[in-house]
Protein 1
Amino acid sequence: MQSVALIDYGSGNLRSAEKALVRAAAGTSQIVVTSDPEIVAAADRVVLPGVGAFAACMKALSERPGLIEAMTEAVQVKGRPFLGVCVGMQLLATRGLEFGETPGLGWIPGDVRRVEPNDPAAKIPHMGWNTLIDPHGPAPIAGVGEAPMYFTHSFAFFPDDPADVAAYVDHGGKFPAAVAKGHVAGVQFHPEKSQSAGLALLARFLEWRP
């Protein structure tokens, strides 16, 4: 049975992400909530959750000794499939521009910056159900189709290369809702809060063979 390391660095959506992954796995994968570098480095897949501010999440991740190095070994060296959720996706960026400038993991070049709607009726934070635009790229994201997903955020990840955007969303203007580069993928929305469509996305990630 494959092992899935769900990274524990104090994120607020950790337990809901764990429950959703367990449901999506349906006994086919072992979901391990962990900050142990040895377990992470040996995992078959890695999931990074996250809610809150970019700088605080990056600080919390960095304060777990050896954790970023273990994630890098599993994902960047061994090529294990990776999924980032909400701020877990944003941390893939080169830097976050929330409360100053904070370096990210740099796995997908780009910036995380505040969403600035063109429509004054579009409130920030962007919160609630919204439909993805042009979901494509890897199977976990391409298979979403037009099912609505649940969002709650004020900042978004803007990759330097538009080819790294795997889906968009419109909230007073279009911006990235999912990213993908090789075996690394991330979603701004919360699959764990997106009912059957979100569970289906997680199930496809667990079966993904990049």
Note: The chain has a mean pLDDT of 95.
Protein 2
Amino acid sequence: MSYASSLYFTGVEVGLSLTGLVLLLVAAWGGTKTARAVTAAAVVALLGATAFSAHLFDLATGEVAGRAFGDLYRADAFGSFAKILIYVATAAVLVVTPRFFAQGNAYRVEYPVLMLFNAIGMGMMVSATDLMTLYIGLEMSSLSSYVLASFLKQDARSNEAGLKYFVLGALASGIILYGVSLIYGFTGSTNYEGIRAAFETQFSSGALFGVVFVLAGLAFKVSAVPFHMWTPDVYEGAPTPVTAFFASAPKVAAMSMLVRMAMEPFAGEVDSWRQIVGFMALASILIGAAGAIAQQNLKRLLAYSSINNVGFILIGLVAASPAGVAAVLTYLAIYVAMTVGSFTALLMLRDPMGNQLETFADISGLSTRRPALAWCLLALMFSLAGIPPLFGFWGKFVVFQTAVQANLVPLAAIGIAASVIGAFYYLKFIKVMFFDEPTREVETESPISHWIVLGLSVAVISPLGYLLTIPLGNWAAQAAASFTLAM
């Protein structure tokens, strides 16, 4: 394959890289005063990358989609679907970010550049078909994430979050790298096709250890139990827009990377990893739900909610079928809308002095002060709980349906029963916002940009979202088939 074709297939990463370098020069010459202009340019670049990814998605079943740079990278519908979610989530977070840092002039021009390079790394992760490409993309995303978590240099909580994320993230990267070395040692290849062919010939105990190490490292990246311990602390300590980013775009990238690893190089050894992923799914559902019950900080609660939802997503992967992959992608699409909307609502919770409000006590009686915001937050929480007729119910439905079709009825039954636990802390929002007396003054106005992002998120998860069921299902099915059939 020619370099021209390879550059075309990697056009998103090349375009975003060039944009990031140009914006980096603008940041160096213009300083902080160019921060908003650089942010706007980054959003435009991400939306352009979304459009190009959609273009590749439409052509993924034809001759245009293919392999780049000797099959180190693959342009297919699966990668394009994940990238669309990643870039949309990143752009949405950038739109609602500047106001958070306005107090104390903490917003710096490096922030949107870091987000842009993070998005490039995530794009490489989901399209990688070689362990070396995967690791480069993973580290490119992780290194910028560590800086973003500790972006508020004067805030002790932000510094603590950055340090914890760095130490545990480095440990997870080391675990993945050790697993990669074992897999290479026992297969003689880092290419996904080569690994799968070698495993079909012989799957030794040493290779199994390599698979387990890789899955363990990826489980950290998606914050699945028992590798979830960093999530509540980092989510609480990081700046709220950064937390919104961590809970959406990197989650999609890591989960998509995990799905591709399981369904391509490890596809012939489903029985070897299904029990591991099944345990992580059920443990994440139970611990995520139980851990959220006692939380008073809303960001920590959403962290446990994220762990809980990761468990539901993993149930689709346990099915180990194209239908299961399609269910995972469907859930991820709905999850991005719910998560971005939830954190946007939190960003709109401020006192008259401009300080962020983050606890249940802060939203007491919110319905009397800001009824529109209270109702939006209520809809988002109920959707996360999977309560019909909100669209979050559909995500859980397709995942459990796939599990039943794969004869995983006990797994689906336990997951459905455990999902009832989560309803408790989501219902707590009703009690606090609509029945408790107000204890804090809240800001009564928010920027139009926040309302646009929140309004779009709520529209997607509302009953109107069911208009997307057929097209979303078709897109997810096409994305799943694009790589499961490519092998």
Note: The CA atoms of residues 231 and 303 lie 6 Å apart.
Protein 3
Amino acid sequence: METFEFLARGAEAFIGVFNAGGKTFVGFVTGILPTLIVLLTAVYTVIGLVGEQRVHRLARFAAGNVLTRYTVLPLLAMFFLTNPMAYTFGMFVQEKHKPAFYDSAVSLCHPITGLFPHANPGELFVWLGVAAAITKLAEAGNAPFSLAKLALAYLLVGLFVNLLKGIVTEWITTIIARREGVDI
């Protein structure tokens, strides 16, 4: 009899995982999914109205110097093309800057999600976990800041870190290329 009870509890726990997953999925369908769809529609509308050539011109301009190459360009790439297509904006940077651009773009996947969840919906679980904790604190009257302030701070710190990482990766790429005798 004990074996039967153990198996029954195991079966309930097993199906409980899927029930919890289903509830989470329904929460996404009624919560974040409509937001993502509207954001994607808005971004594609902006690209359509502004014109793809103008977006490309802006990207070429942003690729021109170290400050914008590792902050503005990855931000534009993630915002307009989303992950993983954002990495194609690497076509606007010189060959020697491509590793550092990729490093900056991939590092922006998390920080951009708080303000622009359409940019990298695959990473929403991280942001939603943080947001849930801040929301609980806010409900209890203990939140030190709003979710919007946190999302903005997260993005700004992410852009600063991207700049540092881009510069360091560029420097490392130059050292390795020199050591290996590769002309870049």
Note: The helical segments are 2-30, 32-50, 52-62, 66-69, 72-81, 98-107, 124-139, 147-180.
Protein 4
Amino acid sequence: MNTNTILIFFTFSLFFSSSFGAVQDFCVADYSGPQGPAGYSCKNPAKVTVDDFVNHDLANKGNTTNIIKAAVTTAFDSQFPGVNGLGLSLARADLAPGGVIPFHTHPGGSEILIVIEGTLCAGFVSSTANTVYFKTLNKGDVMVFPQGLLHFQINSGRGEALFLAGFNSPNPGLQLTDFALFKNNLPTELVAATTFLDVAQIKKLKGVLGGTG
């Protein structure tokens, strides 16, 4: 196949993909339909209402009476049908004094946060050389966390802390490292072998977080 043939093929591919591709203003999530890698199915536009594009959950403070003294309220596509397919979502995090959002990752999106109240110590670890980037953040400060990298937020002030987080995905996903390691039924011996942690400490953490094995 010569260069001219490749260019003609590429041009016509673009033409047909743009001419016959479905163009939609939005794809409000239809929770009764199937969900695939691209998100939820689209609700029939005739059944879409303005309420599909409004979410009130982030107005409410989360319950921080738990082991991490923090609460995260999400407005992802599973709670906010209007963001389905739009490549964005939001979350609210409330941290009591001493509260922490432990090391975690968002495999499906990058995060940007803005501190609304209080003081945070926040940071992430790069995948090259395990370089750590962390900073004390005060009200109005903004920080970004690249997609898939381990990161954390700690309430480093004396009062309560609140931040809002935006994501470049309607469902960025979430995996808390501590819970992934110790809130499961993986045998303690295997956890010890893969983490180099002491067996007694692993059993203690499994007991605290609800793991077995």
Note: The mean pLDDT is 90.
